Amino acid sequence: MTMERITLAVVIGSVREGRFGPTVANWFAERVGADGAFEVVLVDVADRDGDFAAAVDRADAFAVVTPEYNHGYPGALKEAIDSVHTGWLAKPVAFVSYGGLSGGLRAVEQLRQVFAELHAVTVRETVSFHNAHTRFAGGSPVDPGADVAAKKLLTHLHWWATTLREAKRTNPYPA
What is the widest separation between alpha-carbon atoms in the chain? Predict the structure, then answer.
């Protein structure tokens, strides 16, 4: 039996000029693509011409790439998340964060609350980069531990995405 691939939307959550999000997201998307279990779609909240809601609806799972700005996540990311409702229902969300000393983890904790309200399931495993600008060279992390963390995150994300997709096929999620 052939296993269906999971459509994973990697969401770039920053819109600031000179942002570091695309560097982190592109590395993660390459890492996900090497896994083979996922079909990767990059979704950038800065892309005003893109259809964010349609991308969310089509995805089976999400990896939100978020910076931490002033102990929180970007307002543009909140606006994008709030522009969709039913597309998040009973889908897993993982986080790849970056920032200063906290590595964006304070932003992630706030996002967990938001996604819980949207009936999404957040994955405990995360990938985070503290002082991210110094942790990348040539578009890739210098610490091999990032690949280990990404593999663990993807294993859990795949389990949740597969399990929730199958559950919804036999027992639709009550909206």
Answer: 48
The pLDDT confidence band at residue 1, using thresholds 50, 70 and 90, is very low
Task: Give the separation between CA 48 and CA 167, rounded to whole angstroms.
Answer: 34
Tokens at 63, concatenated: 């990896």
Chain segment 32-51, per-residue pLDDT in tens: 988 789 999 999 999 988 89
Mean pLDDT of 88-116: 97
Q: What are the structure tokens assigned to 165, written together?
A: 């997709």
> What is the rounded CA–CA span in Å between residue 91 and residue 56?
10
In 3D space, the residue among 93, 91, 95 whose CA is nearest the CA of residue 149 turns out to be: 95
With 0-12 / 13-18 / 19 or more C-beta atoms within 10 angstroms meaning exposed / middle / buried, residue 104 is buried
